[in-house]
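Thread: Newbie trying to understand structure tokens

Hi all, I'm a second-year student working on a class project, and my supervisor (Dr. K.) asked me to get a predicted structure for one chain before our next meeting. I've only ever worked with sequences, so writing a 3D structure as a token string is new to me. If someone could post the tokens and maybe explain what I'm looking at, I'd be very grateful. Here's the chain:
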Amino acid sequence: MKDQQLQLVRKIPSLPQEVLCNLFPWLNIVRDRVIKPRLKATPGIQVVRFAKTASCAPMARALFVVSLICATSALRATHFLGGDIGHQCLGGGLYAITLHLYRDCAGATVGALQTVNAQSACGTMSVPLNQTSFQQVTPPCALGNNACNGGQFPGTEEYVFTGTVQLPGTCSMWTLSWEACCRNNAITNLQNPGTLSLHVESEIHQANTVCNTSVGFSADPAPYVCAGQPVHYNMGAFDADGDSLAFAFVAAEQGASTPVPYLPPATSGVPITGMTLDAVTGQISFTPASTGSFVVAIQVSEYNAIGQVVGVTVRDFEFIVVACSNQVPSLPVAADMDLGPAIAQGGASLAVCHGDLLDLSIPFSDPDASDALTLTSNVAQVLPGSTFTQAGTNPAVAAIHWSPLPGMTGTYTFIIASTDDGCPVPSASTITLTIIVNDAIAVSLSPDTAICEEGTAVLSALGNGGTGSITYAWNHGPTIAGPINVQPTVSTYFALTVSDMLGCWITDSVHVVVHPLPDVLVTVQDTMRCGPGELVFTNATPPDMVGSTALWDLGDGTLAVNELHMLSHFYDLVSCFDVNLMVISPQNCAADSTFEDLVCVRPLPEPAFAFGPQPTDVLWPRILFEDRTVATTPWLAWYWSFGNGDSLGWSQEQHPEFTFPDAAPGIYPVTLTVTNAYGCSASVMHPVVIDGVTQVFVPNSFTPDGDGLNDVFMAVAEGLDPERFQLDIFDRWGSVLFSTNDALVGWNGRHMNAGGELPTGPYAWRMVYHSDHTAGATEMNGLVTLLR
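---
Reply by user tm_fold:
Sure, no problem. This is what the structure looks like when written as tokens:
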């Protein structure tokens, strides 16, 4: 769009002279200049000029900053601080294009529509991009807002523009570029910076990749730093495809293949005196000696797994150096870092062995005790699934946790930035960490083996994987993979540790089992048993394992073969027996041994006894017992138990007497246990019956006069069943005067129905009862005299 012109008038509030000089050093060189437009003014567009603008000594009450109207067909703007172009492959040659532009908040606005050119041997295409986001990328000062918010301190805005383009697959390499006027007038290391355009570009190498996405950046330019303070800065480049990245200073451009003119001693390779760039990590380090704005251009090249270039991105940005007393945060000291299982590789490189977790704890501090630190990192973009947390503010501790995804090996670089809340410009320091995720180490070892005593085993191993060369170390000394001859005297684990150049390792072992010539040993559950029966033998010969063959001679003419370590045999003869055992292990290591009189079968006594009198009752409970045991050895011992267990009593006499309780008739089990000289015991039990006796007393008279003595006529009995009882009283004519079926209820001398007192004299009674000790009912009859 020819002859388009842009005008911006921004009024900066009246500020102290030293503040403005520090924030905008280019004011030192503007003295009484009248800036004239390079093109004729367009109707409706007002041209504003500097009118006798004062320098920094003294400073006027107000200052107007005016954009230059540049002669170009594109939209022209001033105060661009930098930019970069990225792309995302969507498949089929379709790419999403992203343009990042960074603007000094004191400069002109940025249009909402931008155009990126895509150029190759196939021609040139214009890719329109729309603004999709806008944000401040300079944190507000803790003591006041920055210029982005209308405040007095410097600030930067980020504009993001996106669009898509279909690139023909017939062309192997495309260059994406964007260009506009003008750069920041305050730039210190370029000649006539306000007249120079900003040109950024990137490359897509389609021939070397199926579908590549460009590098991304987690740190936003332009960084504000303090003069005289060390600077450690990193753009935080990361690649979603996992490509290797290489960093290099390149010349900033004002047009395609047109470098900007540097102001000596600045060069494209050293844009700020003393500045260095780590080509592997992208870490920038320097200490600025003076204030000013300095353009830096860094090229980031992406390489695939076979070393081919798949993408190139150039980022153009500024370092803005101001005078401030705020000290930069200190870099962490290696001795204070907790690396967890990671292995330090020297410098800022760590190795994570396959299967280990990355678990880092890194402390940051600031020399200014009142400053609070904020920690940020791009580790989430570099290490998918990782977590980043901050604890504390000064000191502040960064904690990173990550479990490498299956198959995720290689080298990954990320940053941790520590930013304080100092004023007028927060200071920051960035460290770069490189994580080498080790390929899994594997080792194949000889299988576990077994040998007989004095035999030889041959061990060998083969390791692979890991990083770099592999070394071997056996726990018994050799440092070769094998073959190795070993002659252990006992079963031994021979461990092998395989290590790679990063210090990652894996260990495995071979178990060599040594089977000695069997020292045959037999144990038996009981070396003696009483009477014929089973005895259980155990083959306790080392090794005692399933698969061994045992040949048994059990001494009574029985031979047995089994593969188990236990054997049960029934002996039906009373005698002692020799036992012989031969053991043949699975390795054919054999030996035998004879164990004389290993087991003996002893005779059992045959207990018996008689007792009397039987039958008897509680009136005569004393019983005589007579031992009639058949003796099997010259010596015997007796033990009598009367009743259940020893509850009533016991005796060790051969022929005891025992009196059973006279108040408790019943059946008492009596047991005789006889033990012979071998300790063999046998028992016999007989029941002893002690019958109960029923006794009934019926008085022949009673005196129901109420004196409490002999007032009731009733039976006094022992051994009655109280629930089966009947007592009846009759007069002389046979009429029933009283009747009850409760043995505990008596007659009080009254008529049970009429209730009156009966006259003195004799009365007939009849009683029917059941005994607790005999079956059937018993009837009793008699006379009782009623006296008053």
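A couple of things are worth pointing out once you decode it. Confidence is low (pLDDT under 50) at residues 1-77. The CA atoms of residues 142 and 421 lie 6 Å apart. Feel free to ask follow-ups in this thread.
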